[in-house]
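Deliverable D5.2: sample structural annotation.
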Amino acid sequence: MTEVVSVPRLPFYKKLSHILVALVVVGYLLVAGKEILSPLISGLLFAILLLPVSVFLEKKMKFSRGASASTSVLLLLICIAALLLVLAKKSPELREMFAFQLKT
């Protein structure tokens, strides 16, 4: 027969202090690890965004896994380059528009 061991309940002020200390430690780790966490999070975001494209290329277009991953990354780079190209072409107009808004 197994015995049920009861864990003593902590008072509210101890729970609160543990939570506050944990929040401060996690906040410090986030600030200190910003150089490491920022690329990891952006890489995770890009991976999540490219997964449906890669799965589509694998299932519907019958690409291999490596070819579908490479193609989806290439498509992302083309989209980013096209966006930058459009912004570069429109930059004089955008600069004038923002300068006009700042004057008023």
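Annotation notes: The CA atoms of residues 29 and 78 lie 35 Å apart. Helices lie at 12-32, 34-59, 65-103.
The annotation will be released with the project's public dataset once the embargo ends.
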